Amino acid sequence: MAETTRPSIIVILLDALRADCAPFMPETPHLRSLGLMRPELGALTDLVRGAFLFTQAMACSAYTTACVGSIFTGLLPPEHGVRAFDLTSLSNDVRTLAEILAESGYATCAMTDQPAVLQPMGLLRGFQKTAPTEDEALAWWDSYDSMPRFLFLHLWDLHKPYGMPVGRAYRRQYPAIVAQWQERLRSRGIAEPTASQFLDENEERQRVYAMQNAWEDACGFKAGLENYIAGLVAFDQGRLRDLAGALAERRGVAESITMVLADHGEGRDFRPSWRMAHSMSLADDVIHIPLYLRLPGQAPALPISQQVSQADVAPTLLDCAGLLAQRTAPRSPCAGRSLLPRLRGEHLPEQPAYAEVSTLNNDPNKPVGQAAGGREATLRFRLLRHARRKYHLAGQLFSLDDIPAGAAPAEVIRLLCRDLLGRIERQEDVATWLPILQDSSVPDQARRRMLLALIERSDEYRFLVKYAIYDLEHDPLEVKPIDPRRRASDWEAYRKQVQIMLDIDRQARPGEPLLTNEADEEIILKRLQTLGYVE
Q1: Which residues, at least 6 apart from 292, have a Cβ–Cβ distance to it below 8 Å?
Q2: pTM of this prediction?
């Protein structure tokens, strides 16, 4: 394809947009079960009108960095190298969508509300310009109208704290929002929590984040979802409406390929009580995302209900540009593939969607590995989702049977402490028991049992299911996990799915060290605290 005929491409990523709140998506029981309705979103409706709609698109993780890695590479997190939120950056062996397009004659520009989160992970590789605001990104668009363009717009407004638009232009609204939440808490007799460890410029956001959590703890999960919906409506009527209007006025936008999607959703997240969040859950209200693709001159047929993955984004867009052969070849099953054949009415084989969550061991008292910064990540959950069934495996919950026979006491403690001790609610238990567990005069078997008993006192441990199948047809809210070990047929099916998960993990590429220095890492840590990823 000649360079002059390549289409311009626009990708709009709406962070934390729930699928059941998005226009034209089918109704799900998640809102209905709480007596809530899908909000009216005029700006978003206009933005995606005339687009192909994929009603069963799935995220590859529960947090932004791993999801954006899959969106930009067409690979699953083990292959592209971004697994824990900020442990390692994108593998150097992987080419991104922006890199391929830039090498093929495209002008490329990214506007993200959180460049300090994406840039150190290598997720902005290939973008020739990083614009701090929409206005600058659109000015860039206007200045390159003689060549194909790739514009990435990443908006964080739907991320908690809800109802607080991101961007300097909107910060004049913050004092009023803080006052509003203070009054709401006072009206219910809820004490205002203290907020610490935030960037000075985001102090008000962190205060509202803490107040919204206090409100949810007092009023229940439904109150948190109501806050989310109210924030979504405000975003649609404010910043998104402004952006949609500005795009509509731009020359070349109507003739461009435009994709609108979410990185992940927002839903019931256990930390350690139920709250609206996303980074520790692979439930459908978190991994089910809206995905719209508008192709110039092509009228969409009915919505496409076949399950797809956000890892399909890069291959699809590269295929649209005639550059599919340039992508990094996937090595693992369930990796991304182009969806264009499906849009042409051709058969696309059914494929399960893979997702995972890894967490960082940030506690300095925990054993750590040799990863970047002396930190270690734990693969916490992973799953394969089919149209009617979800196969879920919790990664690092140990029982006595998981400990190698004859393991040294220090190894036993390392294995059982990993990731879980730092999440036990009663820290005084840890302080009391740990010296005994480290006392070599106590028999090894006794220490194993003592530590396992301590871990089992954790609310999080009791909540989590190590092996589970979810019947999405009869249990769409995923409240009745099926233990696959109880029926031979379930266990056989489950073992096959776990084998696929293990095959995916065997293709893992090591991520690269973060592209930061110590001062930058401190800034990133504070920003993650502000966003709620780190308590």
Answers
A1: 48, 51, 52, 53, 54, 258, 259, 260, 261
A2: 0.83
